[in-house]
Design a protein that fits this description.
This protein is of the alpha+beta class and 627 residues long. It has 21 helices and 23 strands.
Length: 627
């Protein structure tokens, strides 16, 4: 093949949640895309929890959707239960979560890829990334063929040099017993890519027909459910609600813990067989029993894997103990005394990269045209992977089209927080998104993701004109109604005071602005509708925004001023050629970290672990006198 021949504009390595979003984004931007998967039956596979969303993860899915991604649309068509979490807390941490029919989800995402113009799905193992003259020019597959491309996105998930462990048994496989990839890991190391070893795990799947659900507490979905995608209601005016299936809550027992403690020496995590670093926020049941020895029990959620299967997922009981121990301990759980294990729980170790080798575009700093996304970058979770896949795909496309990259800031989106944390701070364990990581979380709510990000998706070319018009119309309605309730005065009346008393709110003796009543903690915009006769007819999403923005106005304004200060630091560029070794006053650790990460702004430099405020002062002084 001649060197100037191009098979595809962009090559995606991996067809998990990251690879799917990357491929669809590139193709929808008009490029030719090849997606290589080790097994085409594993497209958008859910080898762990069969769900989408959850605390902070729901934010990522909503943001991904606003930018033009696919995950929200697919889960809205394949969910079997939907719940809004954290409703007892404030709206900043409300998070949507949907139980998925994992097989239908995977099938629909695969069908979406297959029917997308410009996408070619191929089952093959990529063994090497081709780099010529310092730039990516393609990949090599296991048959020896060279596939030429202008950019490559690596989204290998947990398949890179992976091995699965159950007790004393180790298998060189990927998740669910699928083929792994070892040659690509060697090829990347030859290119100078720094890798590390991480570990995750999964619980057993058991046969629902062998469980006694009467001993468990049923957990039902919301009625009506809330869609993930802002486009679902417009695309499905007949409604997207469907019959939901219950999940069930049960608990481990002292007998469970006794069995685990008696067999810790047979756990690969405690016997020293496992080398990789595990996730802090999703520990195995062995780890829970050891770390929280004072707790007599731990919550377990029994979650169906789909409508067409009797397999259920035992959430909260991830394990890599031997088969006989797994059988014994699961049968000590109320309602599971006669359970039949269909798939054993296992731990999986895999290679990933040090993400500080990437910049905020998710491109490798030293290898132009090579991008990375998902668990390959050291993160965990389907949602984190999909969000990175979308950004990596967009930026691979913009690289090919010779356009500037899309960079999401921490004040723009949870996706921006995720990417900045990985690329600036790095991670020594599988990274999981949490609301506490977002310092501007009152602004970055899941309910306003469309208002925050649709314009970016539209500018990029992934969101259509009609959706953009809908969002702008919604914005105008919100602004008009906020202005109106600030000007409307509600007269005191017996029925109003009776209502206020019933809500535990103080009575009024003079006219009061409607907005002031909305801001009372015990009241809300919808509840006050009987006393607001001039109220226009508004959609539920508009009323929600009016209530939140009015009620939290003071806090929102304060956070916006904090964002303005952070943007000032972000706007202070650091010259790429700066020599940190010649900056007198910098500590040795700071010099090493700054030289390795090469931050592009003072704001980014301030977030690097090991760089102190004093070090930032040194940089600011240098920049001042440099100019």
């Amino acid at each position: 093949m001649l060197r100037d021949e191009i098979d595809y504009d962009i090559i995606i390595v991996g067809a998990g949640h990251a690879g799917c979003e990357a491929a669809l984004a590139c193709a929808r931007l008009g490029l030719r895309v090849a997606v290589f998967a080790l097994n085409l039956d594993s497209v958008a596979l859910m080898p762990c929890n069969p769900s989408i969303g959850g605390t902070s993860k729901g934010h990522l899915v909503r943001e991904l959707d606003a930018l033009g991604g696919e995950m929200g649309r697919v889960i809205d068509r394949t969910y079997i239960q939907s719940r809004m979490l954290n409703l007892a807390k404030g709206p900043a941490v409300y998070s949507l979560r949907a139980q998925a029919d994992k097989h239908r989800y995977s099938a629909l995402m695969k069908s979406t890829l297959e029917s997308c113009p410009g996408v070619s799905l191929r089952q093959a193992e990529v063994t090497r990334v081709v780099v010529e003259a310092g730039t990516v020019t393609g990949v090599v597959t296991d048959t020896g063929r060279i596939w030429r491309g202008r950019a490559v996105v690596l989204a290998t998930g947990t398949y890179l040099r992976s091995r699965c462990l159950v007790g004393e048994v180790t298998s060189d496989t990927g998740p669910n017993g699928l083929k792994n990839s070892s040659r690509l890991a060697v090829g990347l190391e030859e290119l100078g890519v720094v890798t590390r070893r991480f570990k995750t795990g999964t619980p057993a799947r058991v046969n629902a027909n062998t469980l006694d659900f009467s001993k468990m507490e049923a957990q039902y979905g919301d009625e009506p459910p809330t869609p993930f995608s802002f486009r679902t209601i417009q695309e499905r005016p007949e409604g997207f609600a469907r019959p939901q299936v219950p999940c069930y809550l049960t608990y481990t027992s002292e007998a469970t813990h006794d069995i685990i403690r008696a067999n810790l020496h047979r756990s690969p995590m405690y016997s020293g067989v496992i080398e990789g670093t595990g996730t802090r926020y999703c520990p195995s049941i062995e780890d829970k029993v050891v770390r929280f020895a004072d707790k007599p029990r731990h919550q377990l959620f029994i979650e169906p894997e789909g409508e067409g299967t009797c397999e259920v997922y035992v959430a909260g009981m991830s394990t890599s103990l031997p088969e006989d121990v797994q059988t014994a301990m699961y049968r000590t759980v109320p309602g599971m005394e006669n359970c039949e294990i269909m798939r054993l729980g296992y731990a999986i170790e895999y290679d990933c990269i040090d993400p500080t080798q990437l910049d905020a575009s998710l491109g490798f700093k030293e290898i132009p045209g090579l991008f990375a996304a998902g668990q390959f970058n050291g993160s965990s979770g389907y949602e984190e992977a999909a969000a990175q896949g979308l950004v990596a795909g967009i930026n691979a496309a913009r690289f090919v089209l010779d356009k500037p990259p899309l960079i999401l800031r921490r004040s723009d989106a949870y996706i921006g927080v995720l990417i900045d944390d990985l690329c600036t701070k790095g991670t020594n364990e599988p990274y999981r998104m949490m609301t506490s990581r977002a310092e501007y979380r009152l602004l970055l709510r899941q309910d306003n993701a469309d208002l925050r990000l649709t314009h970016l998706g539209h500018d990029i070319g992934l969101v259509g004109d009609e959706q953009m018009r809908r969002v702008e119309a919604k914005r105008r309605e919100i602004e008009a109604e906020l202005a109106r309730i600030e000007s409307v005065t509600v007269a005191p009346a017996p029925e109003l005071n009776e209502f206020l008393s019933s809500r535990g709110s103080s009575a009024v003796s003079t006219g009061v602005r409607l907005a002031e009543l909305v801001r009372r903690p015990e009241l809300d915009y919808d509840a006050l509708s009987p006393f607001d006769r001039a109220r226009p007819s508004l959609g539920g999403d508009v009323r929600e925004q009016v209530n939140i923005q009015c009620k939290y106005d003071g806090y929102i304004r304060k956070q916006m001023s904090q964002v303005a200060e952070s943007l000032r630091l972000e706007s202070m560029a650091i010259p790429p050629e700066i020599d940190y070794s010649n900056l007198h006053g910098l500590r040795i650790e700071a010099r090493q970290k700054l030289d390795a990460i090469r931050p592009k702004s003072v704001g980014q430099a301030s977030r690097i672990s090991g760089v102190s405020p004093a070090d930032i002062s040194v940089i600011l002084i240098h920049l001042k006198y440099r100019t």
